[in-house]
Design a protein that fits this description.
- The protein is α/β, with parallel strands linked by helices.
- The protein contains seven helices and eleven strands.
- A hairpin with a 5-residue loop joins strand 8 (156-166) and strand 9.
- Helix 6 (188-209) crosses helix 7 (234-252).
- The longest helix has 23 residues, at 50-72.
- The chain starts with a strand and ends in a 29-residue tail after the last helix.
Length: 281
């Protein structure tokens, strides 16, 4: 298998060719994959968890933050840390109504409260500021929030990135912000899927930027700041493309899409209409 082309935008492709990190993750439950990518006309999930909303909010906040730095053509330094107080105020204004989380967002774990998520965002912001001050100082911002696509002779891979920078030594870095935790050592599937996503980043960077010294890094900010990275190598390219082509071939062979319950079911927005859980919401 070989890379035919790379792009910074999506082209029209049939579903049976498409691969993405979210498709790979959500295919662990074929019913969820069916609802999100196969059934027509497309529907919206019944609800969205506040965890997902918090993540999208933080990404949007960083997008605006880094776009201002890019426009100013400034190198990153500790002066560019987030104003946490303003961030939390914006979060409350965006998600709360009469002291409750507004629809369609939902707090899934009953023992959690609105204040728990305000505190979680405060921790995420503090971890991000520490990371920026120690790891991004001196970097030049090349791009903020974009699409990426890798076409091979068998599949088309899609993805999104949060930030691309050039380090002081000239190395190119693609950053992916995560408001959750890093996969634990014994979470083999989660770890593998994250490494595949990082491998796709590295492959795309290598061909799109026409450079060898490239790396994709996921930065996990939930409780402590942790990172996972992947550099481009021919072995990484071969392993990632081969694995994703095999997944796409298997998914194309499905004729039914059964629900496969797991510990993630309470966070699935399709649960209220899922055949495995109808009446149990």
């Amino acid at each position: 298998m070989r890379v035919i082309s790379v792009a910074s935008s999506y082209s029209d492709q049939p579903e049976e060719r498409l691969v993405s990190a979210t498709r790979l993750r959500e295919s662990t439950c074929p019913y969820r994959y069916y609802k999100n990518y196969v059934v027509e006309p497309r529907e919206d999930p019944v609800f969205e968890t506040i965890e997902a909303g918090l993540g999208k909010f933080f990404h949007c906040y960083l997008e605006g933050h880094f776009n201002k730095l890019k426009a100013a053509r400034e190198q990153v330094d500790k002066r560019h840390c987030l104003d946490t107080k303003q961030l939390l105020t914006d979060f409350r204004l965006s998600f709360l109504e009469e002291g409750r989380v507004r629809a369609p967002f939902r707090i899934v774990r009953r023992q959690d409260s609105v204040q728990d998520f305000v505190q979680r965002l405060s921790t995420v912001a503090a971890n991000f500021n520490s990371f920026l001050a120690s790891q991004l100082r001196g970097h030049r911002i090349l791009d903020v929030e974009g699409q990426l696509q890798v076409r091979t002779d068998a599949i088309t891979i899609r993805g999104k990135y949060d930030l691309i920078t050039e380090a002081p030594d000239g190395a190119l870095r693609l950053w992916d912000w995560k408001t959750g935790r890093a996969p634990r050592a014994d979470w083999f599937t989660d770890y593998r899927n994250q490494k595949i996503q990082l491998g796709v980043y590295a492959v795309w960077m290598r061909y799109h930027m026409k450079a060898e010294n490239v790396k994709g890094t996921a930065v996990f900010l939930r409780e402590v700041c942790e990172t996972m990275s992947e550099r481009f190598t021919r072995s990484v390219e071969e392993d990632v493309l081969s694995y994703l082509a095999s997944w796409r071939q298997e998914a194309n062979s499905w004729s039914t899409y059964p629900a496969v319950p797991s510990n993630l079911c309470p966070w699935c927005g399709w649960r209220p209409v899922c055949p495995a859980f109808v009446g149990d919401i």
